[in-house]
Predict the structure.
Amino acid sequence: MAASSAVTADYVLKPPPYSLDALEPHMSRQTLEFHWGKHHRAYVDNLKKQVLGSELEGKTLDHIILNTYNNGDLLHAFNNAAQAWNHEFFWESMKPGGGGKPSGELLALLERDFTSYEKFYDEFNAAAATQFGAGWAWLAYADNKLKVMKTPNAVNPLVLGSFPLLTIDVWEHAYYLDFQQNRRPDYIKTFMNNLVSWEAVSSRLHAAKAASSSSA
Amino acid sequence: MAIRSVLSTRTLSGLKETSSKLLGFRGIQTFTLPDLPYDYSALEPAISGEIMQIHHQKHHQTYVTNYNNALEQLDQAVNKGDASTVVKLHSAIKFNGGGHVNHSIFWKNLAPVNQGGGEPPKGALGGAIDTHFGSLEGLVKKMSAEGAALQGSGWVWLGLDKELKKLVVDTTANQDPLVTKGASLVPLVGIDVWEHAYYLQYKNVRPDYLKNVWKVINWKYASEVYESECK
């Protein structure tokens, strides 16, 4: 399984590719300060502590994730490693002025694999809304097809044989401050309409296709 | 005709009882949100009134509503003999029914300080805690550590294993009731560690929530359950 894009081996807390207030009013600076500044930071810091002096020391993040998933019987470092990866991927899945319908090749593929952008929207929405407890919803690529997935806690498509292209974090900490009174559905809608970076999705798709054909 | 002569008055009244129970089966029992035995703000400063209100009126209410919906769908599927729908509904029943069961226990596990919240357990439960965990502090330390370490959403429990006659500390994921970890387990104290239980007040610092929640734990209720299960 080829390495995914973006995330490096150094277990670094990379800042999002925009300032912490750049996604307002759709995602507040306060949320970014906690979500990136505390939650994501803790995953990275705790991963470093766990890996130091172990046989995982010096291994890439992808390697750790794939080797500690253990078919769902998770080994110790999985949660921190996968959550570090997932959060970096999440920040880069969003941009100021994002959201809405993509165009070009990506739209054509969504229409091919979901019938229409609206059908994809509904499916992604449903996955994010019905992931019970903590987890993530994804647009992913496998076997030359786009698909929607949902995963619990820290699990991501990498360990399930698919290339992640887009994600939304549906742990409560992702939306609890901005969408008070438990309004996860409003958070998902806001993400889809105002935050998705289709540029990021496109470049990830190109990387995924390249990796697929090189291993074919 | 022959049957009528065999039936006594007692049998007839027994049958009447049975038929009304059968009629009861046609409509399923649905559930309602239980009232809290204290005001939303009564657990402050350990748990904010804002959290208590949202936790009760939004989260628990949603579990009740969705549980009732799932039960109605289940009832229809059972009556139609639609086995695959019955099976498909299991996760919705587990999530939402579990959410209702767990939160109903939780509200009783909490009490304002002026109603005994935080007062250490005495009597049989107090003794059992000292036996199994060394001291109440030992139990609190263990439960807080396990609650803090739980990844994702779930609960940390003090339970009684009725069969082995001992106290246990365990965790469950999502809204799984304690009984899913062992058929003989009876929940005595459950602490919700879903982020919604503490986020508005404690943000990401779950350990601080776990430090403070003990100040409003209702050990009187836990003792009652323990003593009735130990009979």
Chain A touches chain B through 20 residues (CB under 8 Å).
